[in-house]
């Protein structure tokens, strides 16, 4: 067979993994039989490579069903044809079940739909969350939500956490599983709670993990690691409720220095900015009249004392709230604001350059070569572009603050 023709022939057996993989949360066998209720991953490169494609099948559907509350797992696949190595000239189809199964909790998932169905029929109606209830509320539509805190290392909870983690690699870029035996890991789990035919039904919506780092000599600096709200429950403000619950858990503790974040995604950064601004705008030091005078030590100290916000984030909150309270119709005030932010950006870039130069000298002293780093230039054009990009981010936060 001609090489080009063979290549076109094999292309018929390549499917988009993000479309082929389907998740579903099920309470009973009736949910399995329904066509609606499925959702897809946002990414699959940690399973199927950068191309995020699966080879060897026609009309492939990969089924990842979860007990809506218990998170019992079923892994299955359906297809109309699986290519033979004779047809593919020796190229074996991807072993989808093995690839995905290797990243699911060991010996804790089903490949028989009958066994899975029987299991959820018995465990879903009686499921109750473990841990301590941290927050509960009801929406205007009458839907109730609850958030529970657990130590990941707790024997009663650890297995459940490992099931929860089955979602993260599909939705958080660069995600990895945590050490569930480490006593410093904390978990906050979000559930929807409904009354159905006189029974209470829970549905898993998402979770957040926080690691307790120690701060010398006897304090801690909790670090938010991962936060995930599943697609069916997004755009409802649940991520903000989940993070605020984490804040509430730590902010009143005298041994907590501040709350930090581990390489937050853009979405988590937006949630963090929104909550920090919403909270800080109630503080006296962040009063609109005081914002126009610039960032102060009072802002830094009050944000840290009341909400465990570090200096860098407190400065960012100040910039967002000052922009919110700066009328763009006033050219003079708006110009003052832009110069204030640009001066901070310029100083930050210069300090980073100084730090890199110091590091280069240290590497040279040790006889090693330091990797190259590229900073944003402090030229007027580059600085202006950096400012505009930052202001656009700030405006999204301000728009949400205005709505809530």
UniProtKB/TrEMBL annotation:
Q: Which residues bind acetyl-CoA?
A: 234-240
What does it catalyze?
Answer: L-lysyl-[protein] + acetyl-CoA = N(6)-acetyl-L-lysyl-[protein] + CoA + H(+)
Superkingdom classification of source: Eukaryota
Q: What is its EC number?
A: 2.3.1.48
Q: Which GO terms describe its biological process?
A: DNA repair; subtelomeric heterochromatin formation
- Family matches, as Pfam families: Acetyltransf_1, HAT1_C, Hat1_N
Q: One GO term of the cellular component aspect?
A: nucleus
Return the annotated site residues (Interaction with histone H4 N-terminus).
Answer: 185
Annotated region described as Interaction with histone H4 N-terminus, given as residue ranges:
50-52, 211-213
Q: Which residues form the N-acetyltransferase domain?
A: 146-324
Q: Which residues form a coiled coil?
A: 342-400
State the compartments where it is located: Nucleus
Q: Name one GO molecular function term.
A: histone acetyltransferase activity
Q: Which UniProt keywords apply?
A: Acyltransferase, Coiled coil, DNA damage, DNA repair, Nucleus, Transferase
- Listed InterPro entries: Acyl_CoA_acyltransferase, GNAT_dom, HAT1_C, Hat1_N, Hat1_N_sf, Hist_AcTrfase_B-typ_cat-su, Hist_AcTrfase_HAT1_C
UniProt entry tagged with the keyword Protein transport: no
* Active site per database record: 262
Is DNA damage found in the keyword set?
yes
Q: In which family does this protein belong, per the annotation?
A: Belongs to the HAT1 family.
Protein's name in the database: Histone acetyltransferase type B catalytic subunit
Q: Which lineage ranks, top first, belong to the organism behind this chain? A: Eukaryota, Metazoa, Ecdysozoa, Arthropoda, Chelicerata
């Amino acid at each position: 067979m001609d090489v080009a023709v063979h290549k076109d022939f094999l292309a018929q057996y390549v499917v988009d993994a993000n479309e082929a993989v389907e998740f579903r949360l099920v309470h009973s066998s009736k949910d399995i039989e329904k066509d609606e209720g499925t959702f897809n991953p946002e990414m699959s490169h940690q399973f199927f490579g950068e191309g995020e494609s699966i080879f060897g099948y026609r009309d492939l559907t990969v089924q990842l069903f979860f007990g809506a509350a218990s998170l019992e797992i079923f892994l299955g696949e359906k297809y109309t044809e699986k290519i033979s190595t004779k047809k593919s000239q020796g190229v074996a189809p991807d072993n989808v079940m093995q690839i995905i199964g290797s990243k699911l909790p060991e010996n804790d998932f089903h490949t028989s739909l009958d066994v899975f169905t029987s299991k959820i029929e018995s465990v879903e109606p009686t499921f109750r969350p473990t841990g301590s209830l941290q927050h509960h509320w009801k929406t205007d539509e009458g839907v109730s939500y609850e958030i529970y805190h657990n130590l990941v290392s707790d024997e009663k909870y650890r297995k459940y956490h490992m099931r929860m983690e089955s979602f993260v690699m599909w939705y958080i870029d660069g995600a990895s599983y945590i050490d569930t035996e480490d006593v410093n890991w904390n978990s906050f789990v979000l559930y929807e709670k409904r009354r159905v035919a006189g029974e209470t039904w829970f549905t898993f919506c998402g979770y957040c993990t926080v690691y307790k780092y120690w701060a010398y000599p006897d304090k801690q600096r909790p670090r938010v690691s991962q936060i995930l709200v599943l697609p069916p429950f997004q755009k409802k403000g649940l991520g903000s409720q989940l993070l605020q619950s984490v804040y509430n858990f730590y902010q009143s503790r005298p041994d907590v220095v501040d709350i930090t974040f581990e390489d937050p995604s853009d979405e988590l950064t937006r949630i963090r900015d929104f909550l920090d601004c919403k909270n800080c705008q109630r503080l006296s030091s962040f009063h609109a009249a005081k914002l126009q005078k610039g960032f102060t030590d009072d802002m830094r100290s009050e944000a840290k004392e009341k909400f465990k916000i570090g200096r860098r984030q407190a400065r960012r909150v100040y910039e967002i709230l000052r922009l919110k309270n700066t009328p763009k119709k006033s050219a003079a005030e708006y110009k003052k604001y832009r110069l204030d932010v640009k001066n901070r950006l310029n100083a930050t870039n210069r300090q980073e350059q100084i730090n890199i130069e110091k590091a280069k000298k240290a590497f040279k002293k040790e006889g090693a070569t330091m990797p190259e780093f590229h900073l944003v230039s402090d030229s007027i054009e580059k600085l202006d572009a950096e400012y505009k990009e930052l202001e656009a981010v700030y405006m999204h936060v301000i728009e949400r603050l205005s709505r809530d």
